[in-house]
């Protein structure tokens, strides 16, 4: 069992009745080649639409992401880009980069309560990812960027819209994300937060001093399946 999964046992999750998951780089490892495909197509879209070279497009892509939460939102606000055109282009990728993880599927199915997806991507992309991971039947619903009216995480308005759509109570919800800034809003609302730290190029959590990690990340793991198995062990030990 991973070091940080062991620490979970010091923080009970027996109050959780809703398990809310981000999609990309959370339900599959950030080391996968899938999301780099998306990022490359975002960069190509920016370059083509704004008539920029690749380097300038990369800078603009990151600038809009940090300013608006997603590059798409920046393109919508600054350039009037149609979100459907953008999403159809950037999500036209090869999902064969993903493979089912039977241990993850088993752990997810054993979680007591509801299992939901909250993503800044499209529902079409979410369904394709879940199909590739053999998780289509695991989740009750998906709240996507269309349902968010193109206002991405971490905007609080989107979280309130999501909780209303799903009818969930933040205080009994655990939210899993690879982005610390997206966990801040969730924690402020009363959710239990889990940082899934497995993005590309990131060092393992064990190398981070705990005080340097966000105060909004109640739990942290570099391996989602191991964390879930530890949570289930804790729940079964304290029914």
Automatic annotation (TrEMBL):
<dbReference type="GO" id="GO:0016787">
    <property type="term" value="F:hydrolase activity"/>
</dbReference>
<dbReference type="InterPro" id="IPR010237">
    <property type="entry name" value="Pyr-5-nucltdase"/>
</dbReference>
<protein>
    <submittedName>
        <fullName>HAD family hydrolase</fullName>
    </submittedName>
</protein>
<keyword id="KW-0378">Hydrolase</keyword>
<dbReference type="InterPro" id="IPR023214">
    <property type="entry name" value="HAD_sf"/>
</dbReference>
<dbReference type="InterPro" id="IPR036412">
    <property type="entry name" value="HAD-like_sf"/>
</dbReference>
<dbReference type="InterPro" id="IPR006439">
    <property type="entry name" value="HAD-SF_hydro_IA"/>
</dbReference>
<dbReference type="Pfam" id="PF00702">
    <property type="entry name" value="Hydrolase"/>
</dbReference>
């Amino acid at each position: 069992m991973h070091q940080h999964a062991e620490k979970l046992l010091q923080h009970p999750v027996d109050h959780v009745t809703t398990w809310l998951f981000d999609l990309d780089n959370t339900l599959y490892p950030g080391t996968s080649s899938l999301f780099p495909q998306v990022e490359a197509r975002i960069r190509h879209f920016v370059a083509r639409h704004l008539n920029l070279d690749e380097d300038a497009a990369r800078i603009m892509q990151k600038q809009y992401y940090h300013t608006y939460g997603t590059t798409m939102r920046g393109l919508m606000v600054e350039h009037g880009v149609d979100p459907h055109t953008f999403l159809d282009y950037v999500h036209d990728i090869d999902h064969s980069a993903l493979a089912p993880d039977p241990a993850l599927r088993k752990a997810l199915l054993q979680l007591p309560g509801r299992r939901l997806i909250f993503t800044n991507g499209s529902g079409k992309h979410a369904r394709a990812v879940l199909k590739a991971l053999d998780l289509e039947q695991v989740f009750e619903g998906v709240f996507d960027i269309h349902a968010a009216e193109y206002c991405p995480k971490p905007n609080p308005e989107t979280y309130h819209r999501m909780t209303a759509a799903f009818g969930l109570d933040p205080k009994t919800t655990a939210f899993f994300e690879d982005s610390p800034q997206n966990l801040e809003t969730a924690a402020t609302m009363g959710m239990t937060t889990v940082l899934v730290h497995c993005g590309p190029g990131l060092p393992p959590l064990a190398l981070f001093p705990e005080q340097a990690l966000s105060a909004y990340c109640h739990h942290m793991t570099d391996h989602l399946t191991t964390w879930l198995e530890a949570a289930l062990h804790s729940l079964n030990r304290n029914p």
